[in-house]
Amino acid sequence: MLEIRNLSKTYNNKVIALKNVSLTVNKGEFAMVLGLSGAGKSTLIRSINGLISVEAGSIEFEGVSVSNKENINKIRKDIGIIFQQFNIIKRLTVLENVLCGRLAYSNTIMSSLKLFKKKDINWALDCIERVGLKEKAYVRSDQLSGGQQQRVGIARALAQQPKLILADEPVASLDPYSAEEILELLTEINKKEGITMLMSLHNVMLAKKYGNRILGIKNGILVFDKQVIGLTEKEMQLIYTMDTSLIKEKQQAV
Ligand SMILES: Nc1ncnc2c1ncn2[C@@H]1O[C@H](COP(=O)(O)OP(=O)(O)O)[C@@H](O)[C@H]1O
Ligand SMILES: [Mg+2]
C-alpha cells in the first residue's frame, strides 16, 4: 500500500532528518514509529502526505508517487492525518470541524459558504458518532477536553474516507487514561474498518500494546523493523533505548 524507498531529507542544507529510509506498509497494518525526540518521526510521517517535500528517494501510495504535485490532492483524500496538538479550529463546532474533512469532496464555493450538502452533514454526524461524540456535535470545540478534541481530529480524518491514517504523536499531549482511550479507538477503527495506521509514538509499552509492527528510528536512520509478535528480550531492550519517557524518568531519578 505504501512504498518508501531511500527517503532522505536534510533541512537548511545541514540538519539530516532522514537518511536512506526504506519501508513498506501493507494494508491493514497498525505500524508504530518509535524514536527519541528529534529522531525524524515527524519528518517521515509528514513526507508521506506531502506536508514536507521529498528531497531524495521516493514515496508511493498505491502505486501513485507522492512527490508528483499533480497527485497530491488524490493522495490527501486517501490519507487522513491526526496531530499531537489536534489541529482543530477551536471556535468552530465539532460538526464544522469534521465537515472540514469533507472539503476535498465539496466544491470550493460551497465550502466557503458553509453550504454543505445534507449528505455531507449526515456523513460527518456519522463519523462523530463513530468516535463517541454524538452528544457534542453542536458544541464549540474549545469546550471539549483534550481527549475529546483528539476524537474530533479522528472524526475529521474519518470524514474523508481514508485508506490510511497517519498519526504524529497523537497521544503525547494527553493524560495516560485519555491516551489509552484514543489508542483503543484507533485500534477499533483499524480492526473493524480495515483502515491502515502509521503512527509515531515515544512510549514503547503503548507501541507494543496497540501496534502490530514497530519501526525504530534513530538519528534519521531506520534501525529497527519487526512485528510485535515474536519480539525477543534482546530486541525489546534495543527498542527501549528509543523511549523518551524512560529517559525522562531516569533524569528525574538522578
Ligand atoms: N522545519 C525544520 N527546519 C530545520 N530543522 C528541522 C525542521 N523540522 C525538523 N527539523 C530537525 O530535523 C530533525 C528531525 O526532526 P523531527 O522529524 O521533527 O523529529 P521527531 O518528530 O522524531 O522529534 C531534528 O533534528 C529537528 O531539529
Ligand atoms: Mg515529532
TrEMBL record:
Annotated GO MF terms: ABC-type phosphonate transporter activity; ATP binding; ATP hydrolysis activity
Protein name per UniProt: Phosphonate transport system ATP-binding protein
NCBIfam families, A to Z: ABC_phnC
SMART domains: AAA (SM00382)
Location of the ABC transporter domain: 2-244
Keywords: ATP-binding, Cell membrane, Membrane, Nucleotide-binding, Phosphonate transport, Translocase, Transport
Entry keyword Transport: yes
Gene3D superfamilies with a match to the protein in the record: P-loop containing nucleotide triphosphate hydrolases
Any one GO CC term of the record: membrane
Pfam families: ABC_tran
Gene source species: Natronincola peptidivorans
Keyword Translocase: yes
Listed CDD domains: ABC_PhnC_transporter
